[in-house]
Task: structure prediction
Amino acid sequence: MKRDEAFWPPVDPVRAGLAGRCPRCGEGKLFSGFLTVGRRCASCDLDYGFADAGDGPAVFVILIIGFVVVGLALWMEVNTNAPLWLHFLLWVPLTLALSLGALRLIKGLLIALQYRNKAAEGRLDRSR
Result:
C-alpha cells in the first residue's frame, strides 16, 4: 500500500463504511457492485487496492445474525412450542434477509477501519 501524503480532513470511518463511501474523502462510492469493491474513488482518486476485508465480514455476520436468530428461535420454541414448519417459515427467510443486509454494511465498515488504522499484512522483522 502506497503511503498517503495528501491532506484530507478526517472522515468518520463508521459513517463512511456503513454508507459505502470512500474512507478518505467520504464522498465517492466504495462498491461497484453489491459486494464488489471498486477500483478507485471517483472523487479523490484513492486506489482501493489496499481493501481486503477477507473473511472478516462473513464471520461477523455469522456470529451476530446467528446469535439473534438462534436466540429468537429458542425463545419462540420455549414459549409457544411452535411446529417445525413454522420455524422454517420464519427463521430461514429472516436469516437470509438479515445476512445479506448486514454483509455489505460490515464489509464497508471493515474496509473503512482498515484504511483509518493503516492496517496492512504482517511482515517479519529481518533486521535482527
